[in-house]
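Hello again, I could really use a second opinion on something today. Take your time with it, there's no hurry, and the full record follows here:

___
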Amino acid sequence: MRTDDSANADPSERHPSVATFLAEGQFGPDSIDAFLAANAFPLTSPGTATFAWRGTADRVELLRWIHAGVERNSFAQVPNTDLWLLTLPVEDGGRFEYKLAVHDGDGEHWVLDPLNPARAGDPFGENSVCRTWGYRPPVWSTPLGAPEGTVETLAVDSETFGRTRHERAYLPAGYDADAPYPLVIIHDGDDFDTYASLKTSLDNLIDWGDIPPLVAVLIQTKDRMGEYARARDHARYVVNELLPAITARYRISTDAANRVLLGASLGAVASLATAFRYPGIFGGLILKSGTFILDDRALEQRQHPVFHQIARLVRALRRTPPIPGTRAFVSTGELEGLADENRALASFLRSHGVEVLFKSTWDGHHWHNWRDQLRDGLMWVLRRPDTEG
């Protein structure tokens, strides 16, 4: 954990609007009102982002969930006012999620930034979002009037898990049961749809011709930590129970190159484990921010049992034969604590005969990061040699 008094940065690093406001020295309530009304926070300029908070407090901090922990950066109070300012060094073209910690006589309170309307959700709630200089959300993740696909429930009788599971299937607009479609199985698919604009993105990317019309099956489990990390039962379910249910109901390509597993975090672990345990079934992998441990020394910093389970899985994968004919898109965020592990994963896959595209962004372990990488991942794994330029 690190604490910075970054609001006291060199004046040359401050946003021009902040520098002008502070230089004028007019800190009455009306001047502060006008300053806040005239600017959209956080204020971004190349290399910096400036945050503001107004209110009575003993201390105000910005909290970022980065580098596998919580980083705290302290605001500085403008003397004799209730205005607090913080300037952070940032990378251009990126984003991060945060909350404010407001300290008073009643303790510490975590709140969303009231001056910033940008939000991002996840299963635990919402965060405020800082979009640094030059970042724009992908236009294809917003409704554009593209023909809409449909989503329906797919019941799967599972002996592996001893119950009927209800997954969901996305069918592209104009689905034709006589035409074979590529298949993408998406781990945590409901969450991808809720927090990462999955259906809207697929509609747009198909309409633009960036990806072919495809069938996407959205897996959702209530036991991610157990099912995905242990992987063996999950892989058996996907290949021996889910896949037959899909092919019995929909017209799916028989070409492994057109069958893809996609997952983020532990979903990436489940995707990779399934592909290695059943080689030749899936020819495409999209692995985002995978929770992988390829260096046993890293386990000293990762005490949760799930990391030790994953480390054992990776050791087993190292002993498996190469899986040529497979394409993998591996991505990470530089602000998460898994960037080095995913670089190592890309190298490991290449050593096993996999054709790999690796991409990194200045972002964290968040759903909007995984949303932003969806187009590149799908275009890479579904691109065939006869279409490459």
Confidence is low (pLDDT under 50) at residues 1-9. DSSP finds eleven helices and 19 strands in the chain.
